[in-house]
Amino acid sequence: MSKKNITKIKIAKELSLKTGYPITFSKKLIDDLIFCITESIKTEKLNLKNLGTFKIIDKNERTGRNPKTREQFVITARKTISFVPSKKISKNLNEQTN
Fold it and tell me: Do 13 and 54 have their domain in common?
């Protein structure tokens, strides 16, 4: 199985083809969408209907270990983002793979 990454430029090109807008405008739309999502997540969890829910998870400081050298080090406390897809997205994905 090969790993396929999608970039903002690829999304902007696809959006541009579908809408007829210039690629620069499509890229600006994507950047603005990402900014809005990021700002919304900072204040509370964000639920986008028929897409999913984004929320912040606070992770505590812990001790990690390099598996190769077995050297221990401290992993600092941090915040991460969790995304849970909506039931509609999950259902569509499962129908397509079967």
Answer: no
